[in-house]
Amino acid sequence: MNPWSRFIVPEVKAERRPDGSVLLRAPEPLGSYERSVGDVLLRQAREAPERVHLAGRDGAGGWRRVKYGESGRLARAIGQALLDRGLDAERPVLIAAENTVEFGLLGLGAALVGVPFAPVSAAYTRPGQGFSKLRHIAGLVRPGLVFVDNWSRYAGAAEVFDGVGAEIVVADDIPADAKVTPFAELAGTPPTPAVDAAAEGVGPDTILKILFTSGSTDMPKGVINTHRMICANQTMILHGWPFLRERPPVLLDWLPWSHTFAGNFDFYLALWNGGAYYIDEGKPAPGLIERTVANLREVSPTIALNVPAGYMLLLGFLERDAELAKRFFGDLDILFYAGAAMDENLQARIRKLAAESGKDVPLISAWGATETAPFATGMNFPTEYRGNIGLPAPGSEIKLAPVEDKLEIRVRGPNVTPGYWRQPAATEAGFDEEGFYRSGDAVKFADPDDPSKGLVFDGRIVENFKLSTGTWVHVGALRLALIAECAPVVQDCVITGQDRDWVGALAFPSLAGCRSLCPELPADAPLGDLIREPTVRQALEAGLKRLAERGGGSSMRVARALLVAEPPTIDAGEITDKGYINQRAVLDHRAALVERLHADKPDEEVVAID
User: How far is CA 24 from CA 318, 409, 599, in A?
Assistant: First the structure.
């Protein structure tokens, strides 16, 4: 059976307008969708009470599995506790925690009774971050209740929470003298008919949550997410992936719920289809990816969800362990990636490994934003175009608007936010005169003569910059070209050179790629050692020369590159809420490396071409 035959690819209508813009939409209507997230939860609790819903590691190292019947019961109890405290849109819930079962249940309880909740990056609560973003968010949200999963991890931020007069609820590690409320107290509240009355009053326009952007150019903005946005979005996904109805999906996911990828797309994908969501406490980073590997020995997902960098790091373990690879691919229906284009080398390695495990697994991608819930376009068909983000889903109307010499992708539909929380100026600036959300992302047609071939991501409009000569550097196109020419060394990169004479790059290396160039070194040689090896540096230099030979002038020529062993992190804001590298944040956080790269006399670690 052709694995692609299980997907439905929508047709696309393209309307080219006199102003140079293009409207894209699926001719098929979206149709009806659910009224609220709470309605879906209670339906699953009635129809599949014994099916696993949420699972996380318990203190003994096993899995704590919460079934749908228990999820429904606990959500009602938590909802009652929130109503007892008089919480509402004026006094919402703020969640500052890693992904946990309690986090998930609190969000569901709040959704059930119509109390908005605001998940924020756990990194904002750690002393090293300075608390500036946390203070900003707490001031905007003005929460009546703050949830943290582990008190000792977040105790330093208590002063911020005290400053807004919020009750602090803690799940674990509660000291005897702490003036906090145990989460168990919320979960043990007997529900009353007030819960049912509140749930009945929740409608499509009720605010579900406030998700904060990464704050790459300013302080984070709070994106209002309504029940309509999520309900419509999950229906859009089902239009293209009807097989989700055939068997409940199983997810093993590390991505943070403070971001729209996991917090909306992944979390509600499991809920809508009666699936099991296993919380992976690992991350794609040395020392943490091993936890993901251990979890994969116990949980076989049906849908893999990750960013390309995550797959790259995981792939090294799968290639060295055939049994683990068989477990990973054994039940897999989809390998989904978003946030960045996946290079051909990585795709080829995944397909080869899947075939050796007896599977043909489609590699699927999509595009969206926190403001679009997030799904707006989907690539669920075979494509030869790298960076293809597919076509608009039914109900998602796309406008390609000329900005400078690029096409900005803009979105209108029931999945789009009504605006930003308590920031009217940002809301006004975020939409154009026709009500389309301005994404700031650029796209182009995969085939200008055939819109059905999909759209290709073409970088961030706001990332482009000028050299000292006045020449524009289009970061997105150059970044993809550099990665392609410098394979297998470079996994991703950040382009430098604003107001300077020439272009440079901070290059994030591929661990597996560097190891393949150094077979004589131990298999566990650290990345910091690998990037200093002559063969790796020579391969990078050869790639820079190939890029220069392609032509395109100074804007498409990278004169110097510096391999950086420390990968970009979500915690530092170097990965955006959309999942790709935050160019501005990396340049800000690694300013010293940029200066080394552009020094008059660079040090020996900088790779340069004439």
Answer: 40, 10, 46
Q: What does 58-74 look like in DSSP terms, one character per residue?
A: -TTSSEEEEEHHHHHHH
Q: Model confidence at 460, in pLDDT bands (50, 70, 90)?
A: confident
Q: Convert the pLDDT of each residue in 37-67 to its tens digit.
A: 999 999 999 999 999 999 999 888 899 999 9
CA-to-CA dists, residue 382 to 183, 231, 340, 450, angstroms: 47, 28, 17, 15
pLDDT value, residue 576:
67
CB 373 within 8 A of CB 37: no
Fold adopted by 66-202: Rossmann fold (3.40.50)
Question: Before 488, cis peptide (omega within 30)?
Answer: yes
- Give the integer Cα–Cα distance in Å for 496 and 475: 9
Domain 464-608, CATH number (from 1.10.150.20, 1.10.340.30, 3.30.300.30, 2.60.40.10): 3.30.300.30
Q: Which one-letter amino acid corresponds to residue 295?
A: N
pTM: 0.85
Virtual torsion, Cα 379, 509, 580, 572, nearest 10 deg: 160
Mean pLDDT confidence for 503-514? 93
Mean pLDDT of 321-345: 90
